[in-house]
Amino acid sequence: MVDAITLAGGQRIPILAGRLPYPVEAHSALLETPMPLVRLFPSMIASDLAHLADEIAGVTAAGVDGLHFDVMDGNFVPDITVGALVIRSVRPLSTLPFDAHLMVTQPDVLIPGIIQAGANRVSVHPEIGGHLQRTLTHIRDLGAQPGVAINPATSPDAIEWVLDDMDYALVMSVNPGFSGQEFIPASIRKIEALSRLIAKSGREVRIMVDGGVSPKNIRELVDAGASDFVTGAGLFAHRPLPGRVKQYRQALA
After folding, report:
1. 253 CB burial (10 A radius; 0-12, 13-18, 19+)
2. Are 46 and 89 in contact (CB under 8 A)?
3. H or E segment at 102?
4. CA separation for the pair 110, 135 (Å, rounded)
5. Which amino acids are annotated catalytic?
6. What confidence tens digit (pLDDT) does each residue in 168-180 have?
7. What domains appear along the chain, each with residue ranges and CATH number?
8. Which residues are CB-neighbours of 182 under 8 A, at least 6 positions away?
């Protein structure tokens, strides 16, 4: 039985539980592991995909808190990216939580495979219509944390009636579809409004921000009420990775 994978630099990464696919029953152990109040999730589609295993090892060693995977279907957004097959393939390479953002028109079709592949957190969009509450309940029943992602033009009110059914809200501070866009300033007001809505509900729902997050604005985003951050080009375009992660941390000191 293969018990580890050797990366290009010679580093050996043990396979979780010594087997594939990733066992869903291991989700609870990962999600219950204590994590910082402010968490960084590198967006892996912004990494060097030709050396994805090495990139995962690199960000893990740099001290990030989880890995973010954008699942795009070429319909809800123009691009087609990764899916369950890629998540399943790289799940043995890290013990960090995997966060999957489904930018797709039929999330209910993909969710079981994404979670079975190893995603610990899964967010879906209300803009596609459908039955959001039912979808969130399904995600939780399958053993993952459910989240709702809202586009720049979508009001925080879109999630008011499903706050009981979600663990986090993902605020898109750029239009979804590709990496490297400029942060939309109005996102600050949206985070503040969402934070007030959550506080009023009395629920424990974290706010995640995706798009244009940098060491220059992360402090303002935390002050507005956010706690989890996706960083793509903001991380991978500024190497070495440990130094860049340190800049994010120092901005919060």
Report:
1. exposed
2. no
3. strand 98-103
4. 11
5. 70, 210
6. 999 999 988 666 6
7. 4-251 (3.20.20.70)
8. 174, 212
Other Cβ atoms within 10 Å of 81 Cβ, number: 19
Q: How many angstroms separate the CA atoms of 40 and 230, rounded?
A: 6
Asked if pLDDT for residue 26 goes beyond 80, the answer is no
**Amino acid at site 37:** L
- Helices and strands, counts by H and E, the chain: 9, 10
- The half-sphere exposure of 45 on its side-chain side, counting CA atoms within 13 A, is 23
Sign of CA dihedral 170, 34, 46, 81: negative
Are 119 and 27 contacting, i.e. CB atoms less than 8 angstroms apart?
no
Tell me how far apart the alpha carbons of residues 114 and 122 are, in angstroms, rounded to a whole number. Answer: 8
Q: Assign residue 63 a region (left: φ > 0; alpha: ψ between -120 and 50; beta: otherwise).
A: left
Q: Report residue 190 as tokens.
A: 């949206």
Average pLDDT over residues 219-247: 97
CA distance 54 to 93: 9
